[in-house]
Structures are given as structure tokens and as C-alpha cells.
Amino acid sequence: FSGAKMLDKHCPKCGSPLFEKGGKVFCPICEHRAKQRKAEMEGVEEKLMEKLNELANSLPDDIGELEKHLRVMEKIIELLERYKKLEGGE
């Protein structure tokens, strides 16, 4: 672990603290690369933003449907915020 920095994130596989060295994040216990999880999540933020834009550009006139659209948009924004926190964006 010489020169590695312990992060405030934990391994999704075993729950042990993750370490970073040379720009690579790793778990010293199970050697599960955190990059695998990131690869699985790749494009999530982009897809959520696309859906948010799609909903924003197709707002219905009916107040009931508008309320449903707005609730879905709020949920998407909430998911984006959670995703950014998971990725260390905030």
C-alpha cells in the first residue's frame, strides 16, 4: 500500500475501504476493481439527462398529465444527484 491513499468509498463486492494509487482505484481485500462498476454505470448520467430533456420538451396541456411529468422529472433529477454523489462528483 506504499503511496496509496485510502478513499471514503467502499468496495461494492466486499465492503472494504477502497484505495487509490497512480490514478487506479482498487480494493486490497478482494482485488475487485472499482472500474468494473464504473463501466457498468457508464452512460447512466447521459441517459437520464436525455430522458429529462425528452420530458421537458413534451410537456402536456392536461394538468394531471403535467403533474405526472413533473414528478418523473423530479425523480430523474434526484437520481442524477445520487449518481453524482456515488461517483464523487459533489
Task: Write up this protein.
The chain has 90 residues and is of the alpha+beta class. The protein folds into two domains: 1-41; 43-90, no CATH class. The chain contains three helices and three strands. The protein has a three-stranded antiparallel β-sheet, with no helix packed on it. Helix 2 (44-56) packs antiparallel against helix 3 (63-86).
Quote the beta fraction: 15-25%
In which range does the helix fraction lie? 40-55%
How many DSSP H or I helices? 3
What gross morphology would you assign? elongated
Give the integer mean of the pLDDT values: 83
Count of domain modules? 2
Give the neighbour order of strands across the main sheet: 1-2-3
Largest β-sheet summary: 3 strands, antiparallel
Low-confidence stretches: none
Order of helices and strands: EEEHHH
Distance from N terminus to C terminus (CA atoms, Å) equals 26 Å
Radius of gyration: 18 Å
Give a count of the beta strands, DSSP E runs of length 2 or more: 3
Structural class: alpha+beta
Summarize the structure.
The protein is of the alpha+beta class and 90 residues long. The protein has helices at residues 34-41, 44-56, 63-86, and strands spanning 5-10, 17-21, 24-26. Strand 1 (5-10) and strand 2 (17-21) form a beta hairpin.
Topology:
Blueprint: E1 5-10, E2 17-21, E3 24-26, H1 34-41, H2 44-56, H3 63-86
Antiparallel strand pairs: 1-2, 2-3
Helix pairs in contact: 2-3
